[in-house]
């Protein structure tokens, strides 16, 4: 930890700040990221630099996107960091990640994401998935469980469908609350996301609309939850049982329904 950046900074609730302090967990994440000199590395929300400094010790350059002006100022005032770090004082949910691309290289994105904005931020990042090699994120454990969930489980939902449409998912490590300061009230986990080289040919907005409708009232059968989009007969025509609940459909089922509606 770089004391010059750390000194006197209090975690801010409005930014969802919980700073990672567990060296073992930090090591696991950096090993998973596997930073190389020729990578275009992007860290979202570097905070006090728990991941920033170990990654910088292995590479020549790192881009960071940070909203908190005080933290940005601390990074920019450190002359040693200044040569290796490009700091973007910006809201990651509105940030154009494509501006960081060089030649034919893809981005490697990582961060300890603020839990209060993690889902919309992930959806924003999925828009850049063709330009990203991989992503490693610390998230609330419940969110990681939903992203990795298999059809038929209670965790399977809209986030599972959309994440798995764009990416292959893998749990890296579970992280207990005491690994942070201040300790959050929830368990955390680190997920690895690798954007798929090929995805189904489907209107993504329609896929999102279908997943939203299907899971808005999870206890309903798809005959009822999707009735504004297609009929029970049309579901049967697609080879789907209208009496199923949404959690029992696979990603390919959601794609099939979305393609059918788009073609109607």
UniProtKB/TrEMBL annotation:
Gene3D superfamilies for this protein: Ribosomal RNA adenine dimethylase-like, domain 2, Vaccinia Virus protein VP39
Binding-site residues for S-adenosyl-L-methionine, renumbered to this chain: 18, 20, 45, 66, 91, 112
Domain Ribosomal RNA adenine methylase transferase N-terminal: 25-197
Signal peptide: none
Location (main, coarse): cytoplasm
Keyword entries, A-Z: Cytoplasm, Methyltransferase, RNA-binding, rRNA processing, S-adenosyl-L-methionine, Transferase
GO molecular function: 16S rRNA (adenine(1518)-N(6)/adenine(1519)-N(6))-dimethyltransferase activity
Domain of life: Bacteria
E.C. number: 2.1.1.182
Reactions the enzyme catalyzes: adenosine(1518)/adenosine(1519) in 16S rRNA + 4 S-adenosyl-L-methionine = N(6)-dimethyladenosine(1518)/N(6)-dimethyladenosine(1519) in 16S rRNA + 4 S-adenosyl-L-homocysteine + 4 H(+)
SUPFAM superfamilies: S-adenosyl-L-methionine-dependent methyltransferases
Localisation: Cytoplasm
Its biological purpose: Specifically dimethylates two adjacent adenosines (A1518 and A1519) in the loop of a conserved hairpin near the 3'-end of 16S rRNA in the 30S particle. May play a critical role in biogenesis of 30S subunits.
Family label: Belongs to the class I-like SAM-binding methyltransferase superfamily. rRNA adenine N(6)-methyltransferase family. RsmA subfamily.
Name by which UniProt lists this protein: Ribosomal RNA small subunit methyltransferase A
Originating species: Catenovulum sediminis
Primary gene name: rsmA
């Amino acid at each position: 930890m770089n004391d010059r950046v750390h000194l006197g900074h209090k975690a801010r609730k409005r930014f969802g700040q919980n700073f990672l302090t567990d060296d073992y967990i930090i090591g696991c994440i950096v090993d998973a990221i596997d930073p190389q000199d020729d990578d275009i590395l992007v860290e979202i929300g570097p905070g006090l630099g728990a991941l920033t400094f170990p990654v910088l010790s292995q590479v020549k350059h790192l881009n960071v996107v940070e909203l908190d002006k005080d933290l940005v100022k601390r990074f920019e005032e450190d002359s040693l960091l200044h040569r290796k770090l490009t700091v973007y004082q910006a809201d990651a949910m509105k940030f154009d990640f494509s501006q960081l691309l060089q030649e034919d290289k893809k981005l490697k994105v990582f961060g300890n994401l603020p839990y209060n904005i993690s889902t919309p931020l992930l959806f924003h990042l999925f828009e850049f998935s063709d330009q990203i090699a991989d992503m490693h994120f610390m998230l609330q454990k419940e969110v990681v469980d939903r992203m990795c969930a298999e059809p038929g489980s209670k965790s399977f939902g809209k986030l599972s469908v959309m994440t798995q449409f764009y990416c292959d998912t893998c749990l890296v490590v579970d992280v207990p609350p005491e690994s942070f300061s201040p300790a959050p009230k929830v368990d955390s986990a680190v997920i690895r996301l690798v954007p798929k080289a090929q995805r189904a040919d489907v209107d993504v907005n329609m896929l999102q609309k279908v997943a939203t409708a299907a899971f808005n009232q999870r206890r309903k059968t798809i005959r009822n939850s999707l009735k504004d989009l297609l009929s029970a007969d049309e579901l049967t025509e697609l080879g789907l049982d209208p009496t199923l609940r949404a959690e029992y459909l696979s990603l390919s089922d959601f794609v099939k329904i979305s393609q059918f509606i788009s073609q109607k």
